[in-house]
Amino acid sequence: MKLRDVSAAAVLAIGALGVATANAGDTFIHHFDQAVGTPAGVADFAGGNPNQTTVPPAGPGGSIVAGGKFGTGLNRAVGGRIQYETAGNYNVQRGTVEMFVNYPSIPGFQHTFGTVFPSSAQLGDIRMYIFNPGGGNLAIGAYMTDATPAHRWEIETNGGTFPHVPAANAAVNTWHHFAWTWDTAAATTSLYWDGVRISNATRVGTVNPYDGAIPTQFHIGEAQLGSATFNGLIDEFRISDSVVYTGANITVPTAPFTVVPEPTSLGLLTLAAAGMFRRR
Length: 280
Description:
Elements: H1 8-17, E1 19-22, E2 26-30, E3 45-46, E4 63-65, E5 73-75, E6 83-85, E7 94-102, E8 109-116, E9 125-131, E10 139-145, E11 153-156, E12 176-183, E13 188-193, E14 196-199, E15 217-220, E16 233-240, E17 259-262, H2 265-274
Antiparallel strand pairs: 1-17, 2-3, 2-16, 4-5, 5-16, 6-15, 7-12, 7-16, 8-9, 8-15, 9-10, 10-11, 12-13, 13-14
Helix pairs in contact: 1-2
């Protein structure tokens, strides 16, 4: 069945009556399109719980601001936490985390994504980060640590074999696409910046199947419990349970990630009664 001749008001009605769907493989999408001045709020799409799980005193983090990559965006420099459950939203075995970031200066050492690991020994710690290696360059990285300390692996661009993001591609007050992919079964991982693969080799350890200590929650724009908060803007945050990007060069998204309202039976009946769709 396909919808035909549906007005904008009808689409909104469907959305109110149904749930959101996204492209196959997507498990979490946040457009950060809430009202300016409000916290990040509910995700636009989630395979699990779309609601923030932060409890007082931290409070909901960030603030929606004008001037996002597409429409409004998230100012992560504002305090608090943006925290969601991992169940259904994040696959530790294989996936992609990506977003657009914009910073006023090259970050010292700041996280754009991190899990709330369930152990004081940091087992189950997963992070995606940006830092300043000097010389106007930018370094990016990500790592996973599971229930076996020897299984910690890290991919990072910090000079030498793992080159920095060149200064020419690290301009401040500019939107940049940042993506990390991993597949523990295939033992592969890659970091992408503005459509170019910066590294596909680990600096520490080798990519291992994740064997436990699965984190229960994740943060956007910071690491464990408020550390190394990203001092800038984030927009179009997406998690997928597939390796979205392969190869040395990729096509950077030029529009918001697709999220489509899925009509419920009641919604379809309402539209049918109004004559706003037909079966095909």
